[in-house]
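We now fix the convention by which a protein and its fold are recorded. These numbers are not coordinates but entries in a learned vocabulary of local backbone shapes. A record is reproduced here so that you can trace the correspondence yourselves:
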Amino acid sequence: MNEQLILHRLEKIEASLKLLVGQQQIQEWYDTKTVAEILERSAYSVREWCRLGRVRAEKRRCGRGTSKEWMISHSELERIKAEGLLPLNVRRL
């Protein structure tokens, strides 16, 4: 009886651990590679969305000389999941 109780509790602990590992840690800002993984798209597509204004993103220093990389806020990521991309701004092209 005691052994069964221990096994049951171990199974519950393992299930909880799997759930925690499966959840993504919420960050304030995400790089394009991380957003691409979350949305199951290519990093190139996400960078293009940023460049074309299809998502609200900011350029931040990234440690590679003077170049900057696109960063997307958590709230914008949630908006993309719920509403999709912003309409294409033709004047921007």
Summary: Helices lie at 2-22, 32-39, 43-52, 74-83. The CA atoms of residues 13 and 86 lie 42 Å apart.
